[in-house]
Amino acid sequence: MDIQRPRGTRDFLFHEMSQRKQVENTLRRIFETYGYQEIKTPLFEDLALFTMKSGEGIMEQIYHFQDKGGRDLALRPELTAPVARLYINELQKKSKPIKMYYFGSCFRYERPQAGRWRQFWQLGCELIGGRSPESEAEIIALSAHCLEELGLEDFEIHIGNLGIIRGILNEAGVSRGEQDQIMATIDKGDVKELKDILETFRVDQNLKDVLITLVGMKGHREVIDKVSRIIDGNESALKALKELEELLGILEAFGFSNYIVNLGIARGLDYYSGTVSEIYVHGLGAQKQISGGGTYNLIELFGGETVESTGFAFGFDRLMEALKKQGITMPQSRTVDVFVAPISQEVKLQAFEIAQDLRKNGIKTDVDLVGRKLKRILSHADSLGARYVLLVGERDLKEGKITLKDMELGEQILVEIDQVTAHLIKLCPQ
Ligand code: HAM
User: Fold this and answer.
1) CB 105 within 8 A of CB 40
2) Is residue 293 lining ligand 1, measured as CB closer than 6 Å?
3) What angle do CA 412, 388, 383 make, to 5 degrees?
4) CATH architecture entry for 338-427
5) For 327-366, what is each residue's pLDDT tens digit?
6) Where are the CATH 3.40.50.800 domain residues in the chain?
7) pTM of the model
8) For residue 58, which atom of ligand 1 is closest to its CA?
9) Is 233 exposed, middle or buried (0-12, 13-18, 19+ CB in 10 A)?
10) Any ligand 1 atom below 6 A from CB of 317
């Protein structure tokens, strides 16, 4: 039987896993530096958790199934809704703000292509119960900090606020349902399609012009003044703009000023309510968005108290791809530092004892488990990249010694058996 991997999934081999793990550890470290604590939620949840407010785009992509008890379940397509559920279940009474981060796989039934997988990983965070512009700014600063720490260059952090366009659509009396469709079209970034949908909803010409101008607005601080002239008189849109301006000021205080204000960001998920942000890395083709996030009102929608919440998630696979494209690799540590080679079967038990002592002292050690001849052991140790081989021979053992071979220098020395571990601790970096 020829069993293949499911479409849109991947296997990761040793080198790639090692790279991924190091990036993961770097990100965890930075998240923890900002006071985030890790949480884990189930891989599958009640389907309703994702159908309530994630938006139509996500709905079509959900891996949905019924279990043997007839329950409608779904593999999680993202982690914000599960974290909102977790918050309502477990954390409502905890002192706020609550800072949580997660790393886990998500599932979306998408057409697989470069950077678009059916199983992919997100490393992200949610901040519940902080004040708006301050929390949003800190989260954006955190995402920038992560990328800087990894050495990624040429990334662009785009920041918008959905309240500006929603404010305008509300004032024009556009229904919530139509607004959601307009936002979804804006998210695609296709102006022609936007014009068509505005036509379909019989939006008047003046409003159409305003919307098209706004979604095309991109730049630094100067954009704020331009937008404020365009939306003059619309109180709720102006309030959202003010919030955006305040956020930029705080973000600069956090030391990040290389942002791009972009009112064309609408986000694919329907639960966002205010500030939104996306990070792009050019050179990744159509899947250049390595991160997305914003402020949302899911907790309220799920029946929890009204509490300000914001977050973002890195698309971990796309981040890895971006690092690879820019030639950034994490230092590769050795698989094993020491290989213990019994020269004959008679000494294999002593070899195991020695290997175990080294391991207990934190030295990455492998030992021959297949009874190979010395030459084959040496070539296997070499293929693993072992720096040292301990040749355990009967004659040496009788004298209380072991031969230590340096595979890189090709030199070997005799070491007292009770000194071997101490000797290797000095030689092998932990
Ligand atoms: P999202 O933009 O749908 O937001 O996903 C976050 C990131 O996951 C994207 O920016 C992208 O890099 C990556 N991603 C999405 N789909 C795929 C895929 N099929 N293959 C590979 N990578 C993918 C969210 O999921 C929100 N929950 C983020 C958030 C957290 N908002 C607030 N808090």
Assistant:
1) no
2) yes
3) 120
4) 3-Layer(aba) Sandwich (3.40)
5) 999 988 889 999 999 999 999 999 999 999 999 999 999 9
6) 338-427
7) 0.94
8) 3
9) exposed
10) yes
